[in-house]
Amino acid sequence: MSREAMLELAQRAAELLVEWNEQLPAMDAWDGEFREAPASVASEEPPENGQPALDVLERAVQKILPTTARLAHPRSFAFVPSSPTWPGVLADFLASGYNVNACTWLVASGPSEVELAVVDWFRRWLGYPEGAGGLFTSGGAAAALDALVAAREAAANPQRASVYMSDQTHSVVPRAARIIGIPGERIHFVRSDSEYRLDVSALAETVARDRAAGVHPLAVCANAGTASTGAVDPLPAIAEFCEAEGLWLHVDAAYGGFAVLTHQGKMLLRGIERADSIGLDAHKWFYQPYEAGCLLVKDVRTLEHAFGLHHDVLQDTVWGAGHPNFADRGLQLSRAFRALKVWMSVQTFGLAAFREAVSGTMDLAARAGRYIDARPTLELLAPVSLGIVCFRVNPDRAGFGETALEKLNRAVLARVFWDDRALVSSTTLVETFSLRLCILNHNTTWDDVRETLDAVERFGAEPRLDASG
Ligand SMILES: Cc1ncc(COP(=O)(O)O)c(C=O)c1O
């Protein structure tokens, strides 16, 4: 491409993105199609001859990219949303343009310095000691997988291994256990308490039962912010138990980890620094574009022991101590330069902006909880934790059975989905169907939250949604 064509294309892409961000709040937080429409664009044969690059760009922007959940929308409350900073977006563009492969020191010493520095920021925020370290990963799922590999490689006896986690743990964690070869019957979902936190006495009973049966308990995977309710497991008690039993403790802080930036979050996540490994996602509560996961381990040598295998073709990349090869710390050899987006975002806005964004969204969630409590037809179903609010429409507390309430709330959810600007999702709390807001976006205002709750209430009051009959 000519210089002019490259600049014109990049300029247009930037303009379109800035326009998109400006228009986002007025749009719906979701747009999608049933199978036929996207397929008609995507299933075309690849053209033999090229087309004007600006036309291709416009087509992508018109036909493909908007047809999504708009996760950065201020009313995107479903699952775990994401609202990236502009410097973070541009960092990904730059890292792609420079075509960085953050695999080894030889290939990427500058990027490796930045990854070391950013991982070290995270280490200090989490209260981890010197000697702890890690790497950027695609996300929390990859972090859990790498952590369990490290746990297995560090275990005195990895045969007949078992792992333990609460029944609220995200499915990516048992999947990681499955990938490392632990069969389903040795992946234990320990019951959680009334606030959806792992019950430590039930954990102790399960571990004791396994030991008596000749199974070798390997690891406990605790939560610092479950996806369903934001619950934080009792980390100090779990750490105590794991230390006494010689078990690896992994904490899945993919969602909640960056709450440690705030005073309240630090108190809630107390004990996390005693874990052997921690997964946390900067593409969630640290405002980065996908993908920006991170795994930290208390002793970085455990990762290098697990993943640092030799290959002759890479022999020139061994530069000795102080020059880590990130490829020796995890699954990937070729790796994107993910740390740059965090570095550029923090340099641009300063840490205080991130702290305020995290605590501001926690405050909104707490306020939503109080608002729901005060509404006669809404019911809070779990304590508000971090930025997550679980609730339902319950017009007549005594009168509706659980089946009718589930039917009503499913209908309300569908109504919000198709007819309201907000995107809300649901979860199941043991057996109770729950609507759920995850408030994370630094652009979300109280009006965004309140109007969404009001819409839920209004839809719940529509006669045709009345589930009592
Ligand atoms: C608590 C929790 N753990 C793990 C994950 C998976 O993380 P990722 O999608 O970044 O792999 C999520 C995703 O939402 C999550 O909320």
Task: Walk me through this protein's architecture.
The chain folds into two domains: 94-349, Aspartate Aminotransferase, domain 2 (3-Layer(aba) Sandwich), CATH 3.40.640; 351-465, Aspartate Aminotransferase, domain 1 (Alpha-Beta Complex), CATH 3.90.1150.170. The model has no long low-confidence stretch (mean pLDDT 96). Strand 8 and strand 9 form a beta hairpin. The chain starts with a helix and ends in a 9-residue tail after the last helix. Helix 1 packs parallel to helix 3, helix 5 (109-126) packs across helix 13 (339-349) and helix 6 (140-154) packs across helix 7. The protein has 469 residues and is of the alpha/beta class. The protein has helices spanning 3-23, 36-42, 53-64, 86-97, 109-126, 140-154, 172-179, 200-212, 235-245, 263-268, 282-285, 300-307, 339-349, 351-374, 402-419, 446-460; strands spanning 133-137, 161-166, 187-190, 216-223, 248-253, 277-281, 293-297, 378-380, 388-393, 425-429, 432-438. 45% of the residues are buried. The protein contains 16 helices and eleven strands. The strands form two sheets. A seven-stranded mixed β-sheet has the order 1-7-6-5-4-2-3, with helices on both faces. The protein binds pyridoxal-5'-phosphate. Pyridoxal-5'-phosphate is lined by residues 80, 139-141, 170, 172, 225-227, 252, 254-255, 281, 293.
How is this fold's topology laid out?
Layout: H1 3-23, H2 36-42, H3 53-64, H4 86-97, H5 109-126, E1 133-137, H6 140-154, E2 161-166, H7 172-179, E3 187-190, H8 200-212, E4 216-223, H9 235-245, E5 248-253, H10 263-268, E6 277-281, H11 282-285, E7 293-297, H12 300-307, H13 339-349, H14 351-374, E8 378-380, E9 388-393, H15 402-419, E10 425-429, E11 432-438, H16 446-460
Parallel strand pairs: 2-3, 2-4, 4-5, 5-6
Antiparallel strand pairs: 1-7, 6-7, 8-9, 9-11, 10-11
Bound molecules: pyridoxal-5'-phosphate (PLP).
